[in-house]
Each structure stands twice: as C-alpha cells, then as structure tokens.
Amino acid sequence: MELVKCVESCYGFEETVERIKDASERRGWKVVNVLDLRENLGKDIVIVEICKEEFARKVLESEEMYWISAMMPCRFGICRQKNGVFVYEVNMETFAQMIGGEVKEVLSKVAEDEIEILKEIQK
After folding, report:
1. How many CB atoms neighbour CB 32 within 10 A?
2. 77, β-bridge pairs
3. Boundaries of every domain in the chain
4. Is this structure's pTM higher than 0.90?
5. d(CA 54, CA 56)
6. Sheet arrangement for strand 84-90
7. Displacement of CA 79 from its chain's centroid (Å)
8. What's the Rg (C-alpha) of the chain?
9. DSSP code per residue over the chain
10. Judging by beta carbons within 10 Å of its beta carbon (0-12, 13-18, 19+), is residue 100 exposed, middle or buried?
11. Does domain 4-119 match CATH 3.30.310.70?
12. Is there a contact between 18 and 9 (Cβ–Cβ < 8 Å)?
C-alpha cells in the first residue's frame, strides 16, 4: 500500500479547498489551520489541517504514544497542477497497519472519515 494517497478533484482549486473544509466539519472534525503557501511559493498549494478531539485524546492517552503527535493534526495538501487539482494525504490505512494495537483501531476510523471527506471532491 502507498504511504501517501492522491485524489484528483473534479472542482477548481478554491472550491476544492472549501469542500475539503466543509466536508471535514460535517464529519465532526475541526479545521485547526489552513496554510496558504501561494504567496510564499508562487504555486497554488494550500494545506488544510484537521483534528477530531476524540481521536486525538485516544491516541495520546499514554506517554508512550506521544511520538504520534509529530503526525498530528491530519492534513490534506491541495495542489493545482498542469493537469488538474489534486489532494494529497497520508494513507491512514497503511499507517494503521504499521502501528498496530489500539492505535490501529483509532487510525482505521480516521481513515474511514478521510475516505468519506475525499469522496466529496472526486470525479
């Protein structure tokens, strides 16, 4: 399985960004940050960072799992390319398999939500 997933959007750049944010919020996620890299990079790239408190609390219950905070919050990289608008994300299904244990269960639920969020912009 791939570590990073890529999905082509059937919408323009701005609408894709808004649809990702809206779909995330409808599924109970909080949009915690939007990094607009267009001015700094001169390219159409926006990163939408989302967090679901119940999932974050669960994976950070024990100090042994604090390392996973380096992977938080979840992110969608939205990029305009010559042939369309694409959304990139860490493949949580693959990541869940790598981690295992109780965290695997939480990450599997994260993966399910992210799949549903991405369905809203797919062709």
Report:
1. 12
2. 47, 88
3. 4-119
4. yes
5. 6
6. 4-8, 84-90, 74-81, 45-51, 30-36
7. 13
8. 15
9. --SEEEEEBSS-HHHHHHHHHHHHHHTT-EEEEEEE-HHHHSS-EEEEEEE-HHHHHHHTSSGGGGGGGGG-SEEEEEEEETTEEEEEEE-HHHHHHHH-HHHHHHHHHHHHHHHHHHHTTB-
10. exposed
11. yes
12. no
Whose tokens are 């024990």? That residue is 62
Would you give per-residue pLDDT tens digits along the chain (123 residues)? 689 999 999 999 999 999 999 999 999 999 999 999 999 999 999 999 999 999 999 999 989 889 989 989 999 999 999 999 999 999 998 988 888 788 889 999 999 999 999 999 996
Residue that is written with structure tokens 């700094």 in the block: 40
Amino acid, res. 61: E
